[in-house]
Amino acid sequence: MIRVKIMEPYPITGVILAGGKNKRMKGKPKAFLTFNNETFLERQLKEMQSIAKEIFVIANSDFVYYKQFESSGIRVFSDEYKEIGPLGGFHKGLLEARESYIWLLGCDMPFPSAAAVKWMYKKMQQEKVQAIIPYIYGKYHPLHSLYHVSCLSIVTQMINRKERTLTQLTNFTNCSYLTEETCKKHEIDLKFVTNVNTPEDYVGLR
Questions:
Q1: Could you tell me which residues come within 8 angstroms of residue 119 by beta carbon, excluding any fewer than 6 positions away?
Q2: How many angstroms separate the CA atoms of 54 and 69, rounded?
Q3: What does residue 198 show for φ and ψ, rounded to 5 degrees?
Q4: Which of 18, 35, 49, 198 has the greatest number of C-beta atoms within 10 Å?
Q5: What is the percentage of the chain residues whose pLDDT exceeds 70?
Q6: pTM strictly above 0.90
Q7: Largest pairwise CA distance in the chain
Q8: Residues 6+ apart with CB under 8 A from 7
Q9: What single DSSP character describes residue 71?
């Protein structure tokens, strides 16, 4: 069981999205891929526990297996809205969160960064925005972003309108961005946006 003492808790709920079908990984659950003798999920839980007051793992397939990770501060849920992709897991996390902010993280990201999220949190306090989304290497990375729980009503409306892409949130929320320039200025390692979608990605990672 993973336990890391939280030295500086923030009012953050960590939400790991592990409910995908892993089609491009030929059905292999990406959360249980390993790097440096740790599964991606173990790495993510460890990093999140350094900053978040509570952590959720949102899983659909292999739900019983994920339940073994439950402990004080870690809970496992399944989607309320199924078969709609990451938006369904995000909705469940927003619905259950007891904290004011959500660190949303895809289970295929082996280098999660509490340092990046700390910067996002401080920026949200300054600018009073609903979301901070990394814009790195010319792409938005909504699955390593920080959101205010007020996004729940927006996400619910998107689901009802059958809008399924997380990047569409930028059209409906008051948001700001974490850029490469800012990461370099604050010595935040850019590899936190790395994700592993295919066997080739995984081989390249190692």
A1: 178, 182, 186, 188
A2: 13
A3: -130, 165
A4: 18
A5: 91
A6: yes
A7: 43
A8: 50
A9: B
pLDDT in tens, 41-88: 999 999 999 999 999 999 977 777 788 888 878 999 998 888 899 999
The CA distances from residue 158 to 54, 57, 68, 88, in Å, are 26, 22, 32, 10
Nearest Cα to 108, choosing from 178, 49, 35? 35
195 close to 137: Cβ distance less than 8 angstroms = no
- Neighbouring CB atoms inside 10 A of 201's CB total 16
**Residues 84-137: pLDDT tens digits?**
999 999 999 999 999 999 999 999 999 999 999 999 999 999 999 999 999 999
How deeply is 184 buried, as exposed, middle or buried, from its count of CB atoms within 10 A (0-12, 13-18, 19+)? exposed
Count Cβ atoms within 10 A of the Cβ of residue 49 and give its class: 0-12 exposed, 13-18 middle, 19 or more buried: buried
